[in-house]
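The data are set out underneath:

___
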Amino acid sequence: MPRRPIQDSDREAIAEFIEHHWHGRKVISRGKAYYPHQEEGFVDWRDSKIVGLLTYIVHGDAMEVLTLNSTLKGEGIGTALTLMAIDHARENNIKRIWLSVTNDNLPAIGFYQRLGFRMVQVNIGAVDKARKAKPQIPDVGHHGIPIHDEIVMELPVKPLTCRQT
């Protein structure tokens, strides 16, 4: 099973993958709970195991990336899945893609910036509030950085252009 859109037959494996990588099946974004295994996205399978997953939800003309994980670092899986989401957004007239990352997640912040995302908002104390709904969220994250805030990043989606010859 190669890299492709999520299918209904993937849902239980995705739920287990989310539970392992996100401390439960629920994720919190901007104060709202989501269950990524029930949403749309793209999955990368290798040897009957998920090695990459991107889940999203569409709000009007905007796509919110809920989760992105790759278990094989340095192989371009996260980039490929994100580019698939960007292509999907473009094909469906979605004007922007946005997501939130925690303040400690410097690798993710750098990753998204390399793809053209910009920081557009910092929600001070958002993770502290989310911890009330999901106590499994750790207090300390990457590099021993305390996790408190949510950084919103955004990428404008440029429409497809047709060339006339």
Notes: The chain has one domain: 4-156.
